[in-house]
Design a protein that fits this description.
The chain has about 250 residues and is α/β, with parallel strands linked by helices. It has a single domain, classed as Rossmann fold (3-Layer(aba) Sandwich). It contains 10 helices and 7 strands. Helix 2 crosses helix 3.
């Protein structure tokens, strides 16, 4: 996993910046009822999306939480007094404290199904009856856009998808949540080019091949032979799932 303290300074610029944040926030808000209350953004990162959630819904009191101090500091600069350090697997809030909970680009980072279950269970625990939990699913699959880059990378050994939609839905059901909708949004500015993909491959991203593995270098050589080395291929399209906590 990336060191998110080290990545914090460059994170937004390398992940689509404000255009991607705007698209993400709009899609999330489409799944959350427009009414007063409290919203918790788990793994809020730099707060680039969290700030937009707060600005778009003044009647919502928005709180951000992140485990990485470097990320939380940047989020706190965007939302003073509304961000804290917290582990999504053990949220420091009482039961039924929030009307909505979000976790955008978190579940795919977790080590295994037990951690995903823990996060989903905690998000359900702090959600009030009638509230909605919204999360991204199938993030890695979103980057496979049918390009020539994807054709080269097709044979690489992949990490298990911890955020597979069916698995997340099952965890949500076990936590007492019911499916309540879905949405999608483009990862603006995140289309891969061959050159950037080679760099990411050599860092060990999106594959089980460690940096320096001969198989990674073979894939890098194939990528280097593709045309238009600096032309980004199509942007990924990210998926959201919403789950509701039944009224008692």
């Amino acid at each position: 996993m990336l060191n998110y303290d080290e990545e914090a300074a460059a994170y937004d610029a390398s992940r689509g910046g404000e255009p991607r944040a705007r698209a993400a926030a709009a899609a999330v808000l489409d799944l959350i009822p427009d009414r007063p209350g409290r919203l918790l953004d788990v793994a809020c990162g730099t707060g680039i999306v969290t700030r937009r959630l707060a600005a778009a819904r003044p009647a919502l009191r928005v709180t951000g939480a992140d485990l990485a101090p470097g990320m939380a500091r940047r989020a706190a600069a965007r939302l003073p007094g509304s961000v804290l350090l917290a582990d999504g697997r053990r949220l420091p809030f009482p039961d039924a404290a929030f009307d909505a909970v979000t976790s955008v680009w978190l579940l795919h980072l977790l080590a295994g199904p037990a951690d995903v279950r823990a996060v989903v269970t905690e998000c359900a625990r702090v959600l009030r009856p009638g509230g909605v939990y919204v999360t991204t699913v199938d993030k890695a699959a979103a980057h496979d856009v049918g390009s020539d880059i994807d054709a080269v990378l097709a044979a690489r050994p992949r990490r298990p998808a911890q955020d597979a939609a069916d698995a997340v839905t099952a965890h949500a059901g076990d936590a007492g949540l019911a499916p309540a909708g879905h949405a999608a949004f483009p990862g603006l500015g995140q289309g891969r080019s061959p050159r950037t993909t080679i760099a990411d491959l050599r860092r060990g991203w999106f594959t089980r091949l460690p940096p320096g593995d001969p198989r990674a270098e073979s894939l890098a050589a194939d990528l280097a032979r593709l045309p238009d080395q600096d032309r980004p291929r199509p942007d990924p399209v990210f998926r959201l799932r919403a789950f509701a906590k039944p009224d008692r």
